[in-house]
Amino acid sequence: MTYDPTGHLLLTPVDREAPARVRRLRELGLGECPDPAFDVFADRLAEVTGAPYSMVNFIDEHRQFFAGLHTPTGTHSGTRSGADLAAHGAVGRYMARDHGYCPHVVVRRKALVLEDVCDYPRFAGNPVVDEIGIRSYMGAPLIDRTGTTLGTVCVVDTEPRPWGRPGLETIKSLAAELVEQIHRREDARRL
Q1: What is the pLDDT of residue 26?
Q2: Going by C-beta distance under 8 Å and a sequence separation of 6 or more, which residues neighbour residue 23?
Q3: I want to staple 128 with a disulfide (CB 3.0 to 4.6 A). Which of 109, 113, 115, 132 is the partner?
Q4: Is the dihedral of CA 37, 42, 45, 46 positive or negative?
Q5: Residue 92 CB contacts under 8 Å (≥ 6 apart), including other chains
Q6: Is the separation of the CB atoms in 91 and 51 below 8 Å?
Q7: Residue 69's pLDDT is what?
Q8: The pLDDT value given to residue 54
């Protein structure tokens, strides 16, 4: 963890694996452009969990990229940044690395469930709370066959949600399913 000049704990953990992740994402051809198959997967995430927003998120050294995105309106919002949410009412494909909770999942390499982000001082001050209105989060890492954490699958809501143990098991299962899909793509490209 790092601190800002005022001595407050910053929310984004130090990510020493980012350069290796970027190399692996490039090798797989992921994280640079929206992918219709990942949008379909994000739609399924939302349907299974009942969440209004869901993402397939790949993270590099500077930003998060939602290669798969589901919003309540069903639109995938082009390339707007996460900071544009409040102004435009739509989720974009890019978000700063210090916004949100997926960077924590990637560094921890473990699923994270926040039924009400305001219950956790470490997470309540994240910019997505005030700028976007996020109140609950659930995400799991996408760890591929090389041991690289590529990113996450996650769902968020603007209301607190009692995800509980069933939600945790669901998001972990869906993450494993997506990793298998990524492996099948990689195998097909090699043939």
Answers
A1: 95
A2: none
A3: 132
A4: negative
A5: 66, 77, 78, 79, 80, 81, 82, 84, 85
A6: no
A7: 96
A8: 97
